[in-house]
Amino acid sequence: MTLDLLRLLLTIALTGAGLVFYVAGTLGLLRFPDTFSRLHALTKADNLGLGLLALGLAFQAPGWAEVAKLALIWLLALLAAGTVAQLVARAALGRGAR
Amino acid sequence: MSTWLAVLAVGLLGSLAAALWRVWHGPGQADRMMAAQLVGTAGVGLLLILWAMGERAALDVALVLALLAALAAVGFVKASSVDGAGDPEEEAPDPSMIKGRRHDP
Amino acid sequence: MAVFDLALCTLILLAALAAVAGPGLFRAVVFFVVYGVLIALAWVRLGAPDVALAEAAIGAGLTGVLLLGAVGRLSRAGADEPLTSRIDWPVALAAGLVGAMLVWAVLSLAPGPGLAPAVAEILPQTGVENPVTAVLLNLRAWDTLLESVVLLAALIGLWPLARGGAWQAAAGPVHHALPDGVLAGFGRLLPPVALLVGVYLVWAGAYQPGGAFQGGTVLAAAGVLCVMAGLVRAPGMAAPLWRLALVAGPGLFLALGVAGMAFGGFLLFPTALAKGMILAIEMVLTLSIAVTLALMVLGPPEGGGAQ
Predict the structure, then answer these.
(1) DSSP assignment of C104-134, as one string?
(2) ipTM of the predicted structure?
(3) Are residues C147 and C261 in the same domain?
(4) In a domain, B94, yes or no
(5) Per residue in C276-303, pLDDT tens?
(6) Do the Cβ atoms of B11 and A90 come within 8 Å?
(7) How many domains is chain B partitioned into structurally?
């Protein structure tokens, strides 16, 4: 019972923190002045948000297979965001240079 | 628990909606593309929440979405290269452009 | 969750409106990609994860590459003029009519469980445990067979657009990238994982959401990425093995359908053999769908020479 309560509290705390980072990333996307600083807001804050969300929800997973899938999803999102940030920034630079 | 998850889901959807604003206003193509990327990341997060609410298959949908999240952006940088088949890294950008740029035209 | 569903519906409508009526081709395409993500969420909320999987793979993945490539091509050709806001009345009328018919159809749906109980009743005889796979590969195998042929026909329809009529040359333009750059690294890292996920989706499709189309789309995305990252050349149709890969799926489907005539009729699978037959069709069909979709996204040959 106490273990369940602990898991519940961890889930709520971690997913709550995750939402905060998502919202922070969105604020950055809306408020930052130029393309390249908006890129920072997105790739860093959002992926931390997703990581915290996945970690929090992992405490509710019925088995290890689901935990592994959650971890894989986060790693894939990190890889995607890192690649996209780099490539899109380069493309934006190239466009400006032309 | 389910109330909390519903609150989370609505909050995350709000974050996603804000990204739609950026897709609309741009101003540059890169801004719109990044905002679409944020919609993807928020979508993955929302699918995880729906999974925790009991929709078991949502985890696999999140996996596919996370796996292919970068594909559209890769298509974008390809399409915006000089011949449509290149790579932005091949065309070395002028380093002086990094400072002082405000908007992508 | 009523608030969530209502907000999701609103966002879907806004994204659709922006994609269709907004100014600017590029913005319209990005909104269409975003729309795909939202629709995938909606399918999950509606309890249709099989469709959500397909939408996530197609709508958010491959369609984005296809449409952004088209926009890039138009802008290089200097043809990306801003969309006019003039309303095309005949088209608007036709779309409105179809829309009204759809609304009428949805409103006139009888409340109730639909066909689900009938499928559940016959499910033990179909050889698989996922009702969606049972319908697609057994109960309504005709539809799926013809769909796989339609996909092939679409690809063949693309080949006449090849530059200089050289339809056997390597598909699409010659892609290149910085050999040790970010794009090439990504192209090396992601496809192995995509291969694993694609095969998993096909295998899992027998007892949970997934299947040949979803798995094939993920594999196609992996192939397209390998080519776009400049790691491998796109295949050309001069190679017989690639042609075989295209027709193997529909071909095996057709052959096993004919074999079913020994058990009572075309496409009738006997319960004892159904699981094996369906899995065989799904595996080979996955390959064919993957190659067909990848070749369609890469585009008609542009005279780069076969591999």
Answers:
(1) HHHHTPPSS-TTHHHHHHHGGGTS-S-HHHH
(2) 0.88
(3) yes
(4) no
(5) 888 888 889 999 999 999 999 988 888 6
(6) no
(7) 1
